[in-house]
Queue: 2 jobs
Job 1
Amino acid sequence: MRASLAVLALALTAAAPAPEQRIDVALSSFKFTPSTITLVHGQAYVLHLTSSGGHNFAARDFFAAATIAPADRAKIRDGKIELDSGDAVDLHFTAPRAGTYPIKCTHLLHASFGMTGKFVVS
Ligand SMILES: [Cu+2]
């Protein structure tokens, strides 16, 4: 019994993921700060979004490719996370394959006013 517990403890240790890194992104009229988010494939992150207005964080290709924590999947609707002024949303995920994935706010004209960004995964 003691030996099997030791094996279990070793297995849990080996499976432990790298520490999660936090990324803060502020949504405001009309920008994402920062607008470029650099990630490393396979690394775990928590994306902390805050908004000072009614905006969304639309990143359909990224959300489809990344591994989103099951408890956070319902925060994404139709490839977007909607935020009202004062909202804060945390999204836990593991970065997908290398590439560049666009981000925008899909509210009327917000992207044309400059509310765009991108994930760059290496
Ligand atoms: Cu917006």
Job 2
Amino acid sequence: MITLEQVRALDAADPLRACRERFALPEGLVYLDGNSLGALPRAAVERQRQVVEREWGRDLIRSWNSHDWIGAPQRVGAKIAPLIGAKPHEVIVADSVSVNLFKLITAAAALSPKRPLLLSEPGNFHTDLHVASGATELVPNLRLETVERGRIEEALGPDTNLLLLTHVHYKTGERFDMARVTARAKDSGALTLWDLSHSVGAVPLQLNRDGAELAVGCGYKYLNGGPGAPAFLYVAEHLQERLMPVLRGWMGHAAPFAFTDEYVPAPGIARFLAGTPPMLSLLALESGVESFEGVDMETAWAKSTALFDLFAALVEQRCAGHGLDCVSPRDPGARGSHISYRHPHAFEICQALIEAEVIGDFRAPDVVRFGLTPLYLGYEDIWTAIDRLVDILESGRWREPRFAVRGKVT
Ligand SMILES: Cc1ncc(COP(=O)(O)O)c(C=O)c1O
């Protein structure tokens, strides 16, 4: 039996405890949705004020040079690099994950036009599959096939152009072995494109060590970059000069202010910029990334696994018989930083929890998902969340009709 005293002792011994102060979170709220929209870093509030009033309001267009707005995509990319085990010049911030997927899928297809197969898995995040299917309509011969994850390695072959996978599954939290899968793909001559949206800032990543060549990732989840924050993309150094963007914008040109008609790609990763970067969002993302300052990802991951274990144990201990079926792997090496349960009334339970100030989220058709963010969650938050969950399940309050009403965003 886990007791509240034990949980408080975990908080007292938590090396990341002070990090919570970096975030402005409402009193009494248990926020378990940092895997969807990260919390607001306190530093972002002051920084945004400064950017709006001084850099935009006073210095106006001069800020592109004087405040180095123009260098921000590379600068913020370089700050993300240590979180993913990449070199600073291998990461750049731009656009959304969806757009960056398009850029890298089409560039990879052009690199090996004789290899027509774009391989992914069914149930991958839908934007990944949608962008991939759109690319197949544009690129001659390129075709998309999805195979179950257990069969991916055998499906790789001499016709595989690109393997497109999400490292940590958005729904179940299942995690691929990046080194192994990338190596298998390489053995068959294919590139792998990893979507790190549910990994970056959550699980320790070593892209260089694991041989990863292409990746994209989300800025608004664990990186705390704010709603709709721009995403990042990673291209391994050795590939950068070989990939030619199909989405060619002036910001990815070698000399954007030469205004020439012909396209000359910028050297290195900068060629994957397209249009003008959204400075307010990009600088908010910079504050989000800086909220990891001094945080060792192995320490953060150790806390994430402990939060997960506590959550799972408390559900087992206190919610037995209420039909919650954990769909996330128990092995820490095989999962990300969220815990998900299947339940026929997952939506209603999630809504009742939100009313009780425990914010998780629902993923159709029947999963309720809880993000475990080691920077701003304590162990007692988990205890409180489960307390409120038990109350909702035992009282049957989730059955009240208002909890069945669905908004546009679920
Ligand atoms: C795995 C994954 N990829 C991509 C996205 C969407 O990214 P964007 O909105 O930046 O296109 C999400 C959003 O939740 C996601 O979970």
